Amino acid sequence: MNLPQFNDIWQETTNWQPSPDQQLLFDELYNKIIETNKYLNLTRITTPEEFWEKNLWDSLAPLMGYDLNNKKIIDIGTGGGFPGIPGAIAFNRGQFTLMDSTTKKINFIAQLAQDLNITNITTLVDRAETIGQEKAYRKQFDFALIRAVAETSVCLEYTLPLLKKNGTAILYRGNWTQEEEEKSKKIAHLLGGNIEKIVNQNTPLNNNIRHCIYVKKIGNTPKQYPREVGKPVKQPL
Ligand code: SAM
Hints:
Elements: H1 7-14, H2 20-37, H3 48-60, E1 72-76, H4 84-90, E2 95-100, H5 103-115, E3 121-125, H6 128-131, E4 141-147, H7 152-159, E5 163-173, H8 178-190, E6 193-200, E7 211-217, H9 231-234
Parallel strand pairs: 1-2, 1-4, 2-3, 4-5
Antiparallel strand pairs: 5-7, 6-7
Bound molecules: S-adenosylmethionine.
């Protein structure tokens, strides 16, 4: 094993521990990422401890209050597969769609899922603004995950249209301010959502600041959202 296991930290901070099979998959995931990172820029995070904390723990800690099994989950702007791949390993009966606009990254994830026999991952090369207006994706998901993709208002515009009623968007953030909270509450309402809770849980090894924003879909997202490709970033709500 190349990765630390840190079962006690998992238990203490998330009330969950990976099984031996899941630990093995995490290790294989780490090896593949390191190997591929030599020619494709998937992550800056390369030491085992950093990978454990910033890609495994950080992906999973915000999910552990929920049961994602038998649910439909989309990871928007998944990049090298975070939080989606650890999510699919931890909840192996959840149906995960990992989406990114970069073909190379998505090809890597599709190959990895095949090599590691992770059968609950579907991959998709597309843009959040496009699929948010498509019948096959709009209002289809129970959970929408988004980490390190854009500012909060953009994340709300990308995630909320994709959720079913009562679905939950999980926004992975670092710092969080009162001002951002006030603004986000209004934008969430405009898009048919409501901020249910904001959880601050810093990372367990380096104590880096983390906030997780849970937004429930309580109504309908007006038809005009998401706006056309590029507009949410250029003219944020
Ligand atoms: N979520 C991953 C993580 O936390 O490691 C990757 C983060 S990376 C900084 C941002 C990713 O979002 C990139 O791979 C980029 O291609 C993707 N992205 C940005 N805007 C997007 C959009 N509108 N639709 C789909 N993917 C997008």
